[in-house]
């Protein structure tokens, strides 16, 4: 802030620590903000599309993440600049709401900012620019609506869903198995979807990964996988038609919560206490047996004594199962969570067709599969892969695919991918800067695929105009055709609309700032 | 400043900063003008935002005058008055915070040449007061009442007021959308004075248009235990029990200790504890409630018990949310589960747990008393939503004000121009110096339309002259003309629905005049060096304290 002077020319201080604060005003502020935003989007630009590259990120603890998911990259980059942070939040919002297209939204925002800078240099008022973008974004969204296609799918015909998920997965490291992964994602979503309410609770889909095996071994399990094994090595490894008691109380004598002391002053009393403890164990196991349980899943641990007893009575048990998994098991098997032994009844038992313990390779790792459940509305995607990073990236990719499938169930409109939608929007109307910005997505796609960006883009544009076909996009895979319909490259309508709206919103916010006041250390 | 010839009489502690007289007054005015210059550019629909970091790394992007003034961290004593009037405008009417600072700054700017020329500040003050009185009378005269209109009509009128406020904010692009939302929310709580009955929840993600109004209460899913997912998530006409107790297996008394001599009695203690909690749960179920909310924790045991009984529960509900639920559903918060009668249970038409963005929300819709509303805001970035919330707050305040005082004036600088004209006219009838001062007051009022033009990049002089011409028309037909932000010309603000509640303007002129007069009446600042040296002393004291401690240890030897 400019110093103010009094009548004697002495400067006086109006703000606290005025000297140490830096301040940017007017066009300088806008330019520096734009530069920051564009810098962030440049980083992501190369990750766009099926031929996009991955980024390797190392956290302060030395953990390595390799990913091409925009939201993850930005999250881990730990951006310090304020405007950069806005871009991070932008991509996070897209992730929360849609789950896919997190790279595209940042690239688009960056392109809009670049365009805005040019306009500002010509002396156009920043809010005019922002308003223009806002109007264009609305036109673009309407236009998308027009060129979108609805397709029908049903529980049996999931092919269109799979195709769309494949488009998402094709840009990921896992694209060699995209077909099978897309199928897994769609089947998983269909299993938990409420088609009437058009609602999907993704919490019911558990994504579990284990190092080892190959990506092709990834499977969808209609049930739950728990990374636990039987509490005793000699318990049976496979139980058919299991009746499961789901317990949240430990296999040990109950303890009152109030502070207590038992006075033992004679040998007899000690004997009784021991006797009673033994009886507790005995009762507990007996109760489980009585109600007909053939498997006990417990949130807590048990005493060795109880473990031995369970083994002895031929009642397999699993211990230390986390609360979330316990809940999923309860939902899947239709059982009830039982907080104490007295309340065990046959109705509260969960039912599963098959419970088996499976060992992997030569390692000692075992996992418990609970399959063929009474209520199959909880599923697990079990990912295998060569290394941890691969599995983590696959998890993220599957998450994206699941989100895409969910969005399609909510709204079954699609637009064509490969930049086709953007090109079509850009042709459709005349707010030039916005249209140019839209072109940046297909440009980046072409660049990343090693094609001549300008040539390719103008060729596709010409084709779209000539054939009046809004399905032409960038042919990233050298498939020989530009028609995205033939290539089956789809994206969800709501995802695309969201991208445009969100990007415009944040750009408006950035453009509207004309004054940055910050402590000097920034 | 004392003469150096004679031995100096030291009256005040050394280091005390005293400045006095005319130079002091002028320097105060300069400081205030500098502050007003900071917020200047945020005025109006083409106003810009400020991005302010603080030392802790928090960032705020805002267009709200009061927020900016607060965050600027002003230490200059005279300029602090401007911060105060912005705050008071914010708490009194909620909007017009930039206007009030700008006006005060402008009044002072106009006063400065007079002060320089040796006019006694008290003369200025007297004239300013008189002018402000006249201006307010004129506003009251010009204000148009919206009383006595039908509800539908009133709604659209109120929405216009809200839209005018929102047009200068970041969410201006969707002002109609939000204006209706705000009006609905305010109408829902009716004349209730408790503003906290309108809840604003922020969920990142989605676009602004995905924001929605819940005619009732909505809050984020609370922390839940295993078993929660097995509870039903949708009810029609449920009864709602509101509690302020823990439903958990726990020791009943903190410091109690049980001594057992007979091990066989062990089980009975365990059972007793279980019975206490089961008794509580049973009473909840028996009350017939289908939804149980508690401000304190609802443990895993209770969660599962309720799941078995097809009851929905949520523990650790934030206090204001719980109060809103109580107000909305007509229930009363209970501190015991004994004697739960039907009257204390709330109810609503639909309860549902819904996915909003990445979060799940508990939504109570269609509440009987209807005195609450919740706005769920969506937006692309956290700061975006923060700013949207501030903007909505302003709009809500405006609508409430407009409902209470139900008179509006034309915005867009129209009312300011009209008062300015009126005062100039009036000034001619006054003999003496006062004529000049009132004229300068009138000139200062023109800062609003001028700034609107400047911010929008129009030629301010040009537009202002057009406005002056319109307002000078004899029959007053141009009285409603203000700046037209869209074309860069002038237009009838009233016809274009650029409306402000009269009370905002009245308060702004009042507060700005007060502040200006206050600053003008100060002719000496005595600034004690205390705060700084006190800090030094405190630090020194601590040092000494440590030293003393060591010393004591030595002595004890």
From TrEMBL, chain A:
Keywords: ATP-binding, Chaperone, Cytoplasm, Nucleotide-binding. The keyword Cytoplasm applies. One of its GO terms (cellular component) is chaperonin-containing T-complex. It is found in: Cytoplasm. This is T-complex protein 1 subunit epsilon. Molecular chaperone; assists the folding of proteins upon ATP hydrolysis. Known to play a role, in vitro, in the folding of actin and tubulin. SUPFAM superfamilies: GroEL apical domain-like, GroEL equatorial domain-like, GroEL-intermediate domain like. The keyword Protein transport does not apply. One of its GO terms (molecular function) is ATP-dependent protein folding chaperone. Its main location: cytoplasm. Belongs to the TCP-1 chaperonin family. It comes from Cynara cardunculus var. scolymus (Globe artichoke). The lineage of its organism: Eukaryota, Viridiplantae, Streptophyta, Embryophyta, Tracheophyta.
């Amino acid at each position: 802030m400019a110093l103010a002077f009094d009548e004697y020319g002495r400067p006086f201080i109006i703000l606290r620590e005025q000297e140490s604060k830096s301040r940017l005003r007017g066009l300088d502020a806008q330019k520096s903000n734009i530069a920051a935003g564009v810098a962030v989007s440049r980083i992501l630009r190369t990750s766009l599309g099926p031929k996009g590259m991955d980024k390797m990120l190392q956290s302060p603890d030395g953990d390595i993440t390799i990913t091409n998911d925009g939201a993850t990259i930005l999250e881990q980059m730990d951006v310090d600049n304020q405007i950069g942070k806005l871009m991070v939040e932008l991509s996070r919002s897209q992730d929360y709401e849609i789950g896919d297209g997190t790279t595209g939204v940042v690239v688009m925002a960056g392109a809009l900012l670049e365009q805005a800078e040019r306009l500002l240099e010509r002396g156009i008022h920043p809010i005019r620019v922002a308003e223009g973008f806002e109007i264009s974004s609305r036109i673009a969204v309407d236009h998308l609506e027009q060129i979108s296609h609805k397709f029908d799918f049903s529980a049996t015909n999931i092919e269109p869903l799979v195709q769309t998920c494949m488009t998402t997965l094709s840009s990921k490291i896992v694209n060699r198995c995209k077909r099978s992964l897309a199928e897994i994602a769609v089947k998983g979503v269909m299993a938990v979807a409420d088609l009437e309410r058009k609602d999907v609770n993704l919490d019911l889909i558990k994504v579990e990964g284990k190092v080892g095996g190959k990506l092709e071994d990834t499977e969808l399990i209609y049930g739950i996988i728990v990374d636990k094994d039987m509490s005793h090595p000699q318990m049976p490894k496979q139980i058919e038609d299991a009746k499961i008691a789901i317990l949240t109380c430990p296999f040990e004598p109950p303890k009152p919560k109030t502070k207590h002391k038992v006075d033992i002053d004679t040998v007899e009393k000690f004997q009784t206490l021991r006797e009673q403890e033994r009886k507790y164990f005995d009762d507990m196991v007996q109760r489980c047996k009585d109600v007909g349980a053939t498997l006990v899943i417990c949130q807590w641990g048990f005493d060795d004594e109880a473990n031995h007893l369970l083994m002895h009575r031929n009642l397999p048990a699993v211990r230390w199962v986390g609360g979330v998994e316990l809940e999923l098991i309860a939902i899947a098997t239709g059982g009830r969570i039982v907080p104490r032994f007295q309340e065990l009844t046959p109705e509260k038992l969960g039912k599963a067709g098959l419970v088996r313990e499976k060992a992997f390779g030569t390692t000692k790792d075992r996992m418990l599969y609970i399959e063929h459940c009474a209520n199959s509305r909880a599923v697990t995607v079990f990912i295998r892969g060569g290394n941890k990073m691969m599995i983590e990236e696959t998890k993220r990719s599957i998450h994206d695919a699941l989100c895409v499938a969910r969005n399609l169930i909510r709204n079954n409109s699609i637009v064509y991918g490969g930049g086709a939608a953007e090109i079509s929007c850009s042709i459709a109307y005349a707010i030039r800067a916005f249209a140019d910005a839209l072109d940046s997505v297909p440009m980046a796609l072409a660049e990343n695929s090693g094609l001549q960006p300008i040539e390719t883009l103008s060729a596709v544009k010409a084709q779209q105009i000539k054939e009046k076909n809004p399905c032409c996009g960038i042919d990233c895979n050298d498939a020989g055709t530009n028609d995205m319909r033939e290539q089956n490259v789809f994206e969800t309508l709501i995802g695309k609309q969201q991208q445009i709206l969100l990007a415009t919103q944040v750009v408006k916010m950035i453009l509207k700032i004309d004054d940055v006041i910050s402590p000097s250390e920034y | 400043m004392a003469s150096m010839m004679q031995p100096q009489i030291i009256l005040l502690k050394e280091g005390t900063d005293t400045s006095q007289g005319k130079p002091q007054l002028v320097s105060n005015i300069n400081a205030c003008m500098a502050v007003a210059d900071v917020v200047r550019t945020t005025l109006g629909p083409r106003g810009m935002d400020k991005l302010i970091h603080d030392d802790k790394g928090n960032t705020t992007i805002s267009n709200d005058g009061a927020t900016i003034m607060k965050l600027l961290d002003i230490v200059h004593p005279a300029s602090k008055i401007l911060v105060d009037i912005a705050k008071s405008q914010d708490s009194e009417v909620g909007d017009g915070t930039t206007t009030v600072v700008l006006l005060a700054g402008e009044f002072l700017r106009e006063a400065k040449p007079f002060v320089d020329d040796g006019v006694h500040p008290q003369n200025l003050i007297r004239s300013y007061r008189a002018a402000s009185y006249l201006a307010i009378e004129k506003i009251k005269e010009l204000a148009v009442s919206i009383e006595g209109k039908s509800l539908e009509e009133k709604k659209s009128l109120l929405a216009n007021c809200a839209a005018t406020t929102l047009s200068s904010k970041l969410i201006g692009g969707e002002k109609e959308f939000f204006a209706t939302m705000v009006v609905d929310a305010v109408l829902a709580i009716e004349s209730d004075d408790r503003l906290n009955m309108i809840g604003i929840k922020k969920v990142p993600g989605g676009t602004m248009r995905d924001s929605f109004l819940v005619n009732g209460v909505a809050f984020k899913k609370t922390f839940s235990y295993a078993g929660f997912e097995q509870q039903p998530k949708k009810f029609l006409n449920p009864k709602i029990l509101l509690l302020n107790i823990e439903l958990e297996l726990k020791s009943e008394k903190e410091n109690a200790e049980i001594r057992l001599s007979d091990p066989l009695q062990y089980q009975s203690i365990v059972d007793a504890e279980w019975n206490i909690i089961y008794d509580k749960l049973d009473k909840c179920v028996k009350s017939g409630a289908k939804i149980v909310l508690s401000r304190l924790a609802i443990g895993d045991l209770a969660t599962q018990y309720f799941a078995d009984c097809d009851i929905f529960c949520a523990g650790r509900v934030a206090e204001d949310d719980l109060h809103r639920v109580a107000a909305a559903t007509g229930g009363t918060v209970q501190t015991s589960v004994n004697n739960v009668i039907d009257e204390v249970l709330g109810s609503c038409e639909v309860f549902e747990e819904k996915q909003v963005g990445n979060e799940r929300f508990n939504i109570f819709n269609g509440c009987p008393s209807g005195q609450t509303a919740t706005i769920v805001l969506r937006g692309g970035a956290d700061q975006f939503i923060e700013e949207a919330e501030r903007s909505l707050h302003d709009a809500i305040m405006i609508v409430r004000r407009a409902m209470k005082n139900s008179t509006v004036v034309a915005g867009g600088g129209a009312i300011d121009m009209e008062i300015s004209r009126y005062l100039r006219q009036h000034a001619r009838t006054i003999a003496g110096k006062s004529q000049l001062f009132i004229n300068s007051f009138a000139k200062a009022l023109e800062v609003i339309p001028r700034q609107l033009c400047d911010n929008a990049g129009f030629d301010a002089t040009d537009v202002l002259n057009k406005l002056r011409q319109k307002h000078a028309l004899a029959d007053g037909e141009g009285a409603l003309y203000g700046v037209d932000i869209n074309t860069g010309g002038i237009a009838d603000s009233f016809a274009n629905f650029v409306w402000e509640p009269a009370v905002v303007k009245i308060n702004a002129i009042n507060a700005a005049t007060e502040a200006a007069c206050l600053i003008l009446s100060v002719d000496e600042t005595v600034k004690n060096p205390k705060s700084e040296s006190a800090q030094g002393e405190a630090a020194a004291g601590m040092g000494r304290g440590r030293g003393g401690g060591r010393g004591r240890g030595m002595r004890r030897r």
